[in-house]
Design a protein that fits this description.
The protein is α/β, with parallel strands linked by helices. The protein has a single domain, classed as Rossmann fold (3-Layer(aba) Sandwich), CATH 3.40.50.1820. 33% of the residues lie in helices and 16% in strands. It has helices at 5-9, 61-72, 98-108, 116-129, 142-150, 193-199, 230-255; strands at 23-26, 37-42, 48-53, 78-82, 134-139, 161-164, 181-186, 209-213. The strands form 2 sheets. The protein has a 5-stranded mixed beta sheet with strand order 1-2-4-3-5, sandwiched between helices. It has a 3-stranded parallel beta sheet with strand order 6-7-8, sandwiched between helices. The longest helix has 26 residues, at 230-255. The radius of gyration is 17 Å and the shape is globular. The protein starts with a helix and ends with a helix.
């Protein structure tokens, strides 16, 4: 697997102009003997749950705004964004060379070694205790690959997965996916249309969805996004609306089976 160059060379944006609407709380289940936090936001009355997998910068002001706005979209969701990098996300000294970035991901973001699935399922169980009956996964960058891996597991509790500016997504990495996906590419990602076309041969109750934002750079909805720039802000709101509509549609299809 290889990273797009923008993922290796583009730092996070340093600004904080958002008042978080959710709060950091502890997950009920310890992971590898340690307590993890999660950012929980959205309507406590919603039965539709979303677990969010961050990009490699971890918790970031733009990410919090993304979570809050997605949780408020299309009738509302309960959204849980667990702490996948308890020691913090990637730092600037790793950026600039793909080998350094891949080395950091291998150390801190390995699906098996770093307990990504266990953290994700712990968030699901807490959302279930909070009244949610359907679950979707949203990732950003590296997080979309982790989401694809999670919904490739037998017996996955998720009804859909996907996210903006996905890294490492290909026919190979999605061949075992068991749910529809939404993939929102920036100008820096490869052509993802073949991936979505293949997913749509699997006969899922909701078709997978793809849209390309050719005027946006990799990471614009996460840590690399500067929503003080009107074009990025507008594109981020469009992405959030597309994600919310997709997850609401999948949740409705899931509820119809109950």
């Amino acid at each position: 697997m290889s990273l797009v160059p923008a993922c290796c060379n583009t730092p996070a944006v340093d600004h904080a102009h958002w008042h978080n609407k959710g709060k950091l709380i502890n997950l009920s289940t310890d992971i590898a003997g340690k307590t993890r936090k999660t950012y929980h936001t959205g309507s406590k009355d919603s039965k539709r749950g979303i677990v969010a997998i961050c990009d490699i910068f971890g918790y970031h002001p733009t990410s919090y705004q993304f979570y809050d706005r997605l949780a408020e979209s299309h009738g509302g969701f309960q959204l849980s964004a667990p702490e996948y990098f308890p020691e913090g996300g990637i730092t600037p000294e790793y950026l600039g060379e793909s080998s350094k970035v891949m080395g950091w991901i291998g150390q801190h973001g390995d699906y098996h070694k770093n307990h990504i699935l266990e953290v994700t399922l712990a968030a699901v169980e807490d959302l279930r205790k909070a009244g949610c009956t359907s679950f979707s996964l949203v990732g950003q960058c590296w997080g979309v690959l982790m989401a694809a891996k999670a919904v490739s597991e037998e017996g996955t509790p998720f009804s859909s997965a996907g996210g903006p500016h996905p890294s490492f997504i290909s026919l190979e990495t999605t061949k075992d996916v068991k749910t529809p996906m939404i993939l929102l590419a920036s100008k820096d990602e490869a052509d993802l249309v073949p991936v979505v076309e293949h997913l749509n041969t699997k006969g899922f109750p909701v078709e997978s969805f793809h849209q390309r934002f050719d005027n946006m750079h990799h990471g614009w909805t996460g840590g690399r996004g500067d929503w003080n720039v009107p074009e990025q802000y507008t594109a981020a709101l469009e992405a959030i609306d597309l994600l919310g509509a997709f997850y609401a549609k999948v949740a409705a299809a899931s509820d119809s089976k109950l």
